[in-house]
Amino acid sequence: MKKLQQALLIVIAILFLPISVYAATLEQLKASAYKGNAQASLELSRIYAPSADRTSYIYWLLMAADHGFVEAQRNLAVQFEALGFTIGDPIGNQIAKSFLAAIVIYYYQKAAEQGDEQAKKRLLDIVN
Question: Model pTM greater than 0.90?
Fold first, then answer.
């Protein structure tokens, strides 16, 4: 019963955590990521994933992907792949699309090399 009470207290504390505490925690997480903490970069990408701040999401995905996190590598490839489809068709944009395609393949390949099945499948779809 005591463990249940402790768990409930934790849930209540999380639900009613003041926004200022959350903001301070977010800033601490960012500071840790800037110092090279790979896990902090991955957590920040997860925090920004559902938000409208796509730039921050991609930034933290890049940081986590460069630390070798498969989840971040795959998600980054997905984001760049989606971005490539939003660039329009004029000839000048073909260079940008080619560049994005290279980035997409690079990150799918990185994730596939670490055993990510989704990345392997998508990479095969792109190449074939």
Answer: no
Q: Determine the straight-line distance between the first and last CA of the chain, rounded to whole angstroms.
A: 58
Residue 63 neighbours by CB distance under 10 Å: 21
CA atoms of 63 and 88, how far apart (whole Å) = 28
Q: How many CB atoms lie within 10 A of CB 18?
A: 8
- pLDDT tens across 63-109, in order? 999 899 999 999 888 888 887 655 555 555 676 777 788 888 889 99
In one letter, which amino acid is 65? Answer: A
Token code pair at residue 12:
């209540």
- The pLDDT tens digits of the residues spanning 77-90 come to 888 888 765 555 55
Q: Which residues of 93-124 are buried (b: 16+ CB within 10 A; e: fewer)?
A: eeeeeeebeebbbebbbbbbeeebebbbebbe
Task: Determine contact, residues 107/116, Cβ cutoff 8 Å.
Answer: no
Q: What's the rounded Cα separation, in Å, for the pair 78 and 89? A: 20
